[in-house]
Design brief:
With 508 residues, the chain is an alpha+beta fold. The protein has helices spanning 20-28, 50-63, 91-94, 106-118, 154-161, 210-213, 219-257, 265-280, 307-317, 321-339, 380-395, 403-411, 415-426, 489-506, and strands at 2-4, 37-44, 69-72, 82-85, 95-99, 128-134, 141-148, 186-188, 298-306, 346-354, 366-374, 431-437, 444-445, 448-456, 464-471, 474-482. It has a domain at 2-203: Chloramphenicol acetyltransferase-like domain (Chloramphenicol Acetyltransferase, 2-Layer Sandwich), CATH 3.30.559.10. It has 14 helices and 16 strands. The strands form 4 sheets. The protein has a 6-stranded mixed β-sheet, sandwiched between helices. A 6-stranded mixed β-sheet has the order 9-16-15-12-10-11, sandwiched between helices. A two-stranded antiparallel ribbon has the order 1-8. It is globular, with a radius of gyration of 23 Å.
Length: 508
Amino acid sequence: MTVTVEPARNVQHAGAHLSAVEALMWTVDRDPVLSVTFGSITVLDRPPDMDRLSARMSRAMAAAPRLRQRVVDTPNPFATPQWCDDPDPDPAYHLRRVTLPPPGSVDQLHEFAATVVADPFDRTRPLWQFWVVDGLVGGQAALVLKMHHTITDGVGGVRLWEQFIDFERHPRPDDPSGADDPGTRTVANDPHPADDPLVADDPVADVTAPASRWRPVSAVESVASAVGSVASAVATTARTGVNLAHQSSSSVVALARHPSRATQWPSRSMAATRSTVRQVVVTDGSRSLMWADRSMHRTVRTVDIDLADARDAAHHLGGTINDLFVTAVAGACGAYHRQRGIAVTDLRMAMPVSVRRDRVVGGNAFVPTRVLIPAGEPNPVRRFAQIHRVLTTVRDEPVLALGDMVATLANLLPSAVAVRLARQQVGSVDFTTSNVRASATKLFIGGSRIEATYPMGPLGGTAFNASMLSYAGVINIGLHIDHGAIDDPDLLTDCLKAEFSALIDHSR
């Protein structure tokens, strides 16, 4: 599938208030173990042109409001925090440059990226940073991105990334996107149809014009803003009530039109209840006794898999690339335990399921799910079949439609209680996986060619996060690891490579 990359003046943005899910992430993030910060490591063929990169950053901040906004708590207990323009923006805070000491190895880059992402954000500033990393072996460079999850999820992050990239190393000066026609250039593998409308028609002001965009707020405007916040909060609460009432009335109307369906309600209600318990209220702990400890010590590892080989293997086995990915990760977990002399049958995996139906740049539209995955099955083909069935079931969980409602109820709790409950629930999870699709062709940024991009998904209190991103015919996998839980990250990485090889070999 493809998505049309529109000119920056046409990019749509989200509303002024955080969504219920974003507000919940903002609350629990006060506990550093539950951090929802994520990142990525983008390897470049050479150091980028900093002037061009700065100009693109300014354009991106103009196109995507959340890049120039900070989160501000509201006095109204029934309202979520707001996105507000930063009154004193500092581009140097968001774009930094560092040079690695010799030899500039991949391990040094991994250590630097893990340290950057683990460092908590200043919650009074916009919640993202770019680090340009020079000094890599072979004359290469890297970009380390750090971003708070309240800004966006994986799909929205790819759309934000489109604001920084070029399609050529040296685009024409009058064509900042690098495309011959910015309105028709496409990035492959977006899950939404290309003919869906992406944007509104209203222009976005230039972020480089402080007189029009970044001006002091007067006392009158402050009062007006406060009144507007209360009104917005009341409207949000009212909309929630209207939505609930609409759902109830729709059910009554449906029953009146189709009385025979009344007999289906008890089973459907029971299914929804069981689904909610499975996903929201898990009472047991994590399944791995070896990975039970949590710390603030982070490390990163990366893996590359040929996309065509993975696609052929997934199709041969009767599933998707995501099925193959999860099967390999689960197999790596089982092999890791076996090599350490510990038996394990299944592990609990967290996996975000996208429910995005919009074309918004940034924002969040996902529901977190938890599922028990067979990790002890040594045969990769049997394990693939088992996991394919499990993941198909997860996609049909009734609770996926109730994500906003669950988050809204959680936001009514005192912050300390919400954090404590989140800690308890995260304690049931062993690891996290995430799958993001990007471009099928090579891209450029600041005059440098992007060679690979390794996602660093948020740990959120789990032992590790394995995230994959398909780019230019290669699956780039980032392992974001809690070193306190997994004391041999190289063994886990080797196990993952071996599992992918076994799955691909079985399909040949």
